[in-house]
Amino acid sequence: MSSTLFRTKKVEQSILDTEEPEHALKKSLSALDLTVFGVGVIIGTGIFVLTGTVAKNNAGPATALAFVAAGVACALAALCYAEFASTVPVAGSAYTFSYASLGELPAWIIGWDLVLEFALGTAVVAVGWSGYIQSLMDNAGWAMPAALGSREGSDVFGFDILAAALVLVLTGILVLGMKLSARITSLVVAIKVTVVLVVIIAGAFLIKGENYDPFIPKEQPVEAGASLDSPLIQLMFGWAPSNFGVMGIFTAASVVFFAFIGFDVVATAAEETRNPQRDMPRGILGSLLICTALYVAVSIVVTGMQHYSRLSVDAPLADAFKATGHPWYAGFISFGAAVGLTTVCMILLLGQTRVFFAMSRDGLLPRFFSRVHPRFRTPHRPTILLGVVIAVLAGFTPLTELAALVNIGTLFAFVVVAIGVLVLRRTRPDLHRAFRTPWVPVIPILSVCASLWLMINLPAETWVRFGIWMAAGFFVYFLYGRTHSRLARSEQTQP
């Protein structure tokens, strides 16, 4: 029994499966495309919102150091992802890596986890995008009917048509091909990064040195007390941590870490990359480096423009410009956030469909979903199915209900991938590794410790919900996946 649960799929077989005509994805992505995907999914509302929250509640101007600490934690995981993605350039990311190193059951569990994480993440972002668009419409004097708008905090039952429409449009784009998706993403990311750079450059001229005093606050100022009820932190964690000093920086890092969620999605596109051995490490590490630099710069600027104790927790950048007499930037920043969320939504949806496709190709889900479109060479069946499901989910479900399970899934994937690097180094030292994680086993062990530490900071309710979803995953695996996997069938046919 245990031997079947932990049977591994050889790397050579995983790569061979990508060459089957009916199940082969089109290779069209470059290192630049992957970097753009990474930047597109990482930079979202986090850069526009989290900065003010953690500056006011935890780190003050030292929020920049919190972003550095979170970036380092992500870099540890990114180095592990880069080795796997260049060694096993197959769709599925952490699922595929786990199948090659830890076995079928761990692979199923991480795949099950990623499907939920990406689905809820896509729905959350779509609802957030809808809220920004409705805000911009209200500013222009166009009010969305209550029955067709966002229902967060509203007593009116309705369907968020904007959120659902966004998911369906992006689903259509993904079906039409990765190159088209990459071009649209590049355009939108260029707009988003331009907005961020304008904020940084314009805000730099409004910095006052006295706002950096103290740089690392030792206690919470009286006027910051109201910020403990930050809706964003309550949404993400169910609680609002608030300690200062050096520990405040690390507490802030556990919060802003979630502004980096998404770089691992780049690994799901390994099979559609022209030269994955060279380009996957560049895309993963390059996007993470760019986003960390932008996050640090934004946090330095916003805490220099306005004293951290007076920062807004809902729109710190926009309100900081208003406080300095430049209200025009508020609308500009809201526009940038709304535009930016479209790429976040698209790439999360892309990641989910590729994991679902990989699991289907291995027989752990019905093989019907692993056939690619004869013309576009994309996994159109799972893309359409998941796009419709997520559109309905985003349309009917309130934001607070959607976000409950998103965060813990990514950290769990980081732990599994880091352990997988250690295992595969030991079991398959003969494999050619175009990129090798440095300082093994130190880097993977540090990655596991950093991810577990951040997971411990999550509330008990999140762990309970996560446990329920994992239990459901075990049930589905033993009911269907264990007997239908291609490895199981190949074992049955052997004499």
Automatic annotation (TrEMBL):
Keyword Electron transport tagged: no
GO cellular component: membrane
Molecular-function GO term, any one: amino acid transmembrane transporter activity
Record keywords: Membrane, Transmembrane, Transmembrane helix, Transport
Subcellular localization: Membrane
Signal sequence region: none
Keyword Mitochondrion: no
Topology within the bilayer: Multi-pass membrane protein
Protein name, per record: APA family basic amino acid/polyamine antiporter
